[in-house]
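To illustrate the input format used throughout this study, we show a single complete record. The first block contains the structure-token representation of the backbone; no residue identities are included at this stage. The design step must infer an amino acid for every position from geometry alone.
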């Protein structure tokens, strides 16, 4: 094994998977923890099947992402970059060095490339805990100052790894499409049929983006390789930074209660209403989903070196990924304790209906995007 400098534990040249080193907590009071460097890992390794199916399909559409990049990158990306360049602190070796050091460790674990080539990182003075990835051609990350103050080193590593996961997966491109369509729906509200047609696409994109958040949670866990720290992050986002009076088992029991919707069908519909326009799953649900992913053995399998590689991305099969997405919906539907899911299971093959709906939705959205991409293609060829 090697550390982040490429040297083995004895100081000599190392081989195999690398490791990145750091202190295990804010202030360095705990022993140094060592994390595996997941050499050559593809974002497909951590992407939720429903997220991965949509991304693989969209990546296959030649020119579509370039249309979005050119159309929205002209001003939107420059606007946000200038905003944070003028109003936030760029983290590096001289400013917010603790945050920058943790960022380098998270990027090293995900084999993100040379430090000089990493997306820029900014810390913005904001009293609310949050972080975000911005931009398409030259993405960058903004973490709120409240997050920096609230999280210890291991927790912050998860947060930064989460944002790196968004960037590696290219979520910004398709999230931009989502924002654009939402605004378009609002503008077409006076045309009932036009708005109705787009609402279905927006709903599908919202569902995709919620799954994209689950994907990036997995990336955050792989960056920090500390499931307990990942759980603490969700607890802090749900209830604030003080965990001295918070019980992990009780928090997970609360997640289970949310899944069951108190056993009341009315609460099942309220859950659907709450999620309809939400880009993020509820914190308790995110914690439960990440815990389930760990318990399936997928997390340990990746750490053992069995994962999708970037060199094979071009060979990814759209049909196989869409099938995997449908299966993930069927599996989630089958294990759900929600009363509405239980009702559908009793009165029909609800799990297969959920899977078929997911596959049909993906096919329709892909067809719509394909038509849009063809309409936007330059008949004279690609631009440099």
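Output of the design step:
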């Amino acid at each position: 094994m090697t550390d982040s400098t490429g040297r083995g534990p004895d100081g000599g040249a190392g081989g195999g998977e690398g490791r990145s080193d750091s202190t295990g907590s804010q202030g360095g009071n705990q022993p140094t923890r060592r994390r595996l460097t997941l050499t050559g890992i593809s974002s497909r390794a951590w992407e939720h099947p429903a997220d991965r199916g949509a991304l693989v399909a969209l990546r296959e559409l030649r020119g579509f992402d370039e249309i979005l990049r050119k159309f929205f990158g002209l001003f939107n990306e420059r606007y946000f970059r200038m905003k944070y360049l003028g109003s936030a602190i760029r983290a590096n070796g001289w400013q917010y060095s603790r945050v920058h050091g943790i960022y380098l460790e998270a990027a090293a674990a995900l084999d993100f490339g040379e430090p000089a080539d990493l997306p820029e990182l900014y810390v913005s003075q904001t009293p609310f805990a949050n972080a975000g990835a911005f931009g398409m051609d030259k993405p960058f990350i903004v973490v709120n100052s409240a997050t920096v103050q609230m999280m210890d080193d291991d927790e912050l590593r998860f947060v930064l790894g989460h944002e790196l996961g968004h960037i590696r997966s290219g979520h910004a491109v398709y999230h931009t499409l989502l924002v654009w369509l939402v605004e378009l729906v609002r503008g077409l509200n006076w045309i009932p049929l036009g708005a109705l047609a787009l609402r279905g696409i927006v709903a599908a994109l919202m569902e995709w983006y919620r799954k994209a958040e689950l994907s990036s949670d997995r990336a955050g866990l792989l960056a920090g390789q500390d499931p307990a720290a990942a759980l603490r992050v969700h607890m802090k986002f749900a209830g604030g930074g003080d965990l001295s009076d918070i019980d992990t088992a009780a928090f997970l029991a609360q997640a289970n209660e949310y899944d069951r919707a108190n056993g009341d069908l009315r609460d099942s519909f309220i859950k659907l209403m709450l999620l309809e326009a939400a880009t993020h799953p509820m914190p308790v649900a995110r914690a439960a989903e990440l815990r389930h992913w760990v318990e399936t053995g997928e997390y340990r399998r990746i750490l053992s070196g069995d994962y999708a590689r970037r060199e094979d991305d071009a060979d990814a099969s759209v049909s196989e990924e869409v099938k995997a997405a449908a299966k993930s919906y069927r599996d989630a539907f089958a294990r759900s304790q929600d009363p509405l899911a239980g009702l559908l299971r009793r009165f029909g093959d609800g799990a297969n209906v959920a899977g078929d709906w997911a596959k049909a939705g993906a096919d329709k959205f892909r067809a719509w995007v394909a038509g849009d991409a063809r309409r936007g293609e330059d008949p004279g060829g690609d631009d440099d």
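Structural context for interpreting the output: Residues 37-376 form one domain. Confidence is low (pLDDT under 50) at residues 1-16, 22-29, 350-359, 373-384.
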